[in-house]
Amino acid sequence: MASLKTETVLNHSTRVILKGKKQNVEVPATCCGTWSWGEKRPWGYTEERDLPGIKEVWNLLNKEKIGFYDGAEGYGPLENERIIGKLLKDMTEEEKGEVIIATKWLPFPIFPGRLWPVGIVGALKKSLERLGVKQVDLYQVHIPVFLFYGIEGIAKGLAECVELGLTKTVGVSNYNEEQMVKMYDELKKYGVPLASNQIEYNLLRTVPEKSGLLAACHERDIVPLAYSPLAQGRLTGKYNSKNLPTGRRMYGNQPWEIIDPLLEAMKEIAEKRAVPISAVALNWVMCKGAIPLGGARNGKQAGENSKALGFRLTNEEVERLDGLSVEGNTLPIVQAG
């Protein structure tokens, strides 16, 4: 198994361990973020237009043996898990065994019956129904919201999910260091490891690195999962100050006079290595010791993202990009970590 902290080249066969109480889960060094699968805002999802492309992504990544997908009940909402469930339904049991599925619980009162710890178990059972599986590989708390109970109650609910065999591992998302360490300590009381913390981390938001959150993850063998590693398309090379992205894209929303010089440096590195600019952005995340969750809505995007595997930026290249990076923003909930 590879360690995200070592200076090695991560490739398609690389596997990273998510720690569990009863069993660990071996995952690829990249993950496919599926926020756009079923989500109308900001992605404008329609089944007729988008489902064929999603199937391309699914087939390509599974063929390359890097089928690791991160979804959530809150995406859609609910439609995301239904889409993944439909894709799984068309697979053989052997094929399903090679796919890694992660989903998330949303501790927010947009759904009934989830404002107590018991709601975590019930929510996961509903997610499993939509996915058409008996167990997920990773179940995560989507945001650090504590309406009627604290981290202690959430930890109890997550531990019960593990004991019931509904998930192999558990994680959190958007937790800052203090929240994450407290969850780690609470889960330990049940003998359950905190497997991961999913955080917004990219060249336009290096807060997790500067705050010490990444180091705190590595010290505890908590795997950092970096969502929005392409800053909602800003780091793909598709956009620039003269060709702006459309829609509401809050992640990585920095002035283009800052982004353009960064993209120029990324382009030079990408051309030298004969890889897409997006692959450079994702590889930078891996060099920092995190698994990037690159989103993809069609086979072309998925293929470009997968090219982040098989090479490693030099220390000089990383330092050059670091010098052009931005610390970014911190908000109480979705960008707490």
The main sheet comes to: 8 strands, parallel, barrel
Name of the CATH first level: Alpha Beta
What is the total domain count?
1
Helix content: 25-40%
The end-to-end span amounts to 27 Å
Strands, count? 10
Number of helices: 12
Oligomer, anyone? single chain
The H/E string reads EEEHEHHEHEHEHEHHEHHEHH
Radius of gyration in whole Å, from Cα? 19 Å
**3D shape:** globular
Annotated CATH homologous superfamily: NADP-dependent oxidoreductase domain
Name given to the CATH architecture: Alpha-Beta Barrel
Keywords: Oxidoreductase
InterPro entries: AKR (IPR020471), AKR_Detox_Biosynth (IPR050523), Aldo/ket_reductase_CS (IPR018170), NAD(P)_OxRdtase_dom_sf (IPR036812), NADP_OxRdtase_dom (IPR023210)
Protein name: NADP-dependent oxidoreductase domain-containing protein
GO molecular function, one term: oxidoreductase activity
